[in-house]
Amino acid sequence: MKRERDEAGLDVRGVAVTLICAVLGLGIVFLVALQLQQWVDRAGEHFAAWKRGIEQPRPAAEQPARTIPSRDPAKANKPAQADLTGAFTENSYPPEALRRGEQGRTVADLAIDATGAPTGCKVVTSSGSRALDEATCRIALQRIHYQPARDAKGDAVAGMLRLPVKWVIPE
Fold it and tell me: What would the pLDDT profile of 36-52 be if each residue is shown by its tens digit?
């Protein structure tokens, strides 16, 4: 079988196959590196939370029993409230969003039960960054202390709370 050779005496098919293999190899290396970077980002978030002493959510079986606060007529007809002190700090910024230079405003609706525990989070206005939107709900569900809504008699009831968060890259 005779192989095609160009004017310089190179095997054209061999060179083409080598180039194709090199391009495919580089593509695979790129995909592996991308996956590794995402893994490192997630590990970095968990490490940063651990370093700051932030507790990860416990399974329901391990969580302490919560009680419904007693009636307080002075707080009648009040919506659910949140204490945001220390919840969103420079260390809260997701590494993936920092690396990509992402910032914006996320608005989330939170369901708060009668004990003041958050039971759900839904992003209603996205910042345009999946990482920032997910961080908003993660922080809202894990780090923020809530006061339940109150009905006309002052009894604690389940309610909703709208949480706007403006994400700005720390300097």
Answer: 777 766 666 555 544 44
Among the listed residues 150, 146, 147, 145, the one whose alpha carbon sits nearest the alpha carbon of residue 71 = 150
CA distance 138 to 121: 9
Sheet holding 118-125, edge to edge: 118-125, 104-112, 159-167
φ/ψ of residue 4, rounded to 5: -75, 135
Note the maximum CA span of the chain.
Answer: 97
Return d(Cα 37, Cα 136) in angstroms, integer.
Answer: 22
- Terminal Cα distance for the chain, rounded: 67
Q: Is the full-model pTM beyond 0.70?
A: no
Amino acid identity of residue 68, one-letter, is I
Q: What is the DSSP letter of 108?
A: E
| Lowest-pLDDT choice from 30-34, 110-114, 120-124, 162-166 | 30-34
Strands 156-157 and 104-112: unpaired
